[in-house]
UniProtKB/TrEMBL annotation:
Pfam families xref list: ABC_tran (PF00005)
Protein name: ABC transporter ATP-binding protein
Keyword flag Protein transport: no
SUPFAM superfamilies with a match to the protein in the record: P-loop containing nucleoside triphosphate hydrolases
Keywords: ATP-binding, Nucleotide-binding, Transport
Organism: Asticcacaulis aquaticus
Length: 232
């Protein structure tokens, strides 16, 4: 079996909602993800999918949970350690691509490498290779506005992977696309994740897409339940 990239135990998350009250969204979530595994995260609206992705993505500190990514322990990790891990170990894809409009596809994908102070040539070579792998070899010099919605999302996927993360977190990555484009973008994401040996957690409302993932986990009443393929 391939190595464990993410190990999470006992994650809780509450929000203060005024009047001294708090809303307990995650009530002890456990999750392991292995290299090369594509896991769907489903659950009703408001069940805590984005909250879970934020905690796993180290955008929020989790004090009680035991959390390791790529063997590094993030329980009580400093802000600096979390920021470093977000740059090196974790890639993010959102529902809306958030590409920089004045940059080309190549420039957008090379950017995270430049943040790591990689030389321009090296950054662009990596960006080009990923964009080609995602079928965008003819679109390198297009700006986001000159790309279709599906192409924009594939650029966002390339950007998320350019720093060679171990973990890819995606929040409704195809939520803004029509069903056919959605399927194509998902397949491109799955293929590249598998070829790079990344572990991916993909929140989605699209049960058809979820049925094409290796495993599906569902958030229910603050807990994560593993679904059999037939239930997804
Ligand atoms: N900053 C916050 N303050 C208070 N409550 C919050 C905050 N963020 C989220 N919540 C609440 O936590 C619950 C979970 O929200 P979350 O966005 O994680 O759900 P979700 O499963 O991703 O929903 P959706 O599928 O609609 O995107 C919701 O009831 C939401 O209102």
């Amino acid at each position: 079996m391939s190595e464990i990239v993410l190990s999470l135990k006992g994650l809780t998350r509450s929000y203060a909602v005024g009047g001294g009250k708090s809303l307990e969204v995650l009530k002890g979530v456990d999750l392991d993800l292995r290299a090369g595994e594509v896991v769907g995260l489903i659950g009703p609206s408001g069940s805590g999918k984005s909250s879970l992705l934020h905690c796993v993505g180290l955008l929020e500190a989790s004090e009680e949970a035991a959390l390791t990514i790529d063997g590094e322990d993030f329980k009580n990790a400093s802000e600096a350690a979390r920021t470093r891990a977000r740059l090196h170990k974790i890639g993010f894809v959102y529902q809306f691509h958030h590409l920089l409009p004045e940059f080309t596809a190549l420039g957008n994908v090379a950017l995270p490498q430049r943040v790591l102070k990689r030389p321009l040539k090296e950054a662009e070579a990596k960006a080009k290779a990923l964009l080609e792998q995602l079928g965008l070899g003819e679109r390198l010099d297009h700006q986001p506005a000159q790309l279709s919605g599906g192409e924009q999302q594939r650029v966002a996927i390339a950007r998320a992977l350019v720093n060679a993360p171990r973990l890819l977190l995606a929040d409704e990555p195809t939520g803004n696309l029509d069903p056919q484009t959605s399927q194509q973008v998902f397949e491109a994401l799955r293929d590249i994740v598998k070829s790079q040996g990344v572990a991916a957690l993909i929140a989605t409302h699209n049960l058809e897409l979820a049925s094409h993932m290796d495993r599906v986990v569902s958030l229910k009443d603050g807990k994560l339940v593993e679904l059999s393929k037939a239930d997804a």
